[in-house]
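Retro notes, structure queue

What went well: the backlog is down to a handful. What didn't: a couple of records were mislabeled last round, so from now on we paste the full input next to the output in the thread. Example, using RNase NYN domain-containing protein from Pseudosulfitobacter pseudonitzschiae:
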Amino acid sequence: MRAPFFLFLISCIGVAVALLLPGWSDLLLVAVPMAVAAAVLIARRPRIAPRRRPPPRQPRTGPPVILDGSNVMYWKTDSPDLAPVRDVIATLMAHGLSPSVIFDANAGYLLYGKYWHDNDFAAALNLPDGRVTVVDKGTPADPLILQTARKTGARIVTNDRYRDWLDQFPEARKRGHLIRGGYRNGPLWLDLPKPQV
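Corresponding output:
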């Protein structure tokens, strides 16, 4: 689409010459319509969308693990903090696991004073969209966490015992289904099984 720009430039030069040099005023009869036509072509040219970068490659995923985000964000202090969630995600990934996070609807308000959507948390945690869920207002996250773990065969990172849900989800009683964790004298610990040698 360089031709319309070239024509517009030439016609503008023609108009300037016709106005500045005596005896060249007839050039206006050609240069002005040519400038208008080139301007119309430029205005109507199709907009070319910027090239999209290909989506980042997803790392190879290991066995799924679900974080109870609203529980984990209190592991470091009595105040909600996203840092423990980031620490747990990094530790799980280092162990070859594939973490997803589920938050209560009020998690954004507790952390930042406003509602945060799934993609807001995904960006803050450097996780792909779809790996973070914020439940709807008025819906408890616990049953969704337990149901998702059941569907995907995932274990759950939490210090919650889900006592209110054990009748519906008896697998939460099984040893190793719930991964406990926290901070002892500084560093994070997770009750992960030792790798087999």
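Agreed that this is the format going forward. Reviewer comment attached to the example: Residues 2-20 form the longest helix (19 residues).
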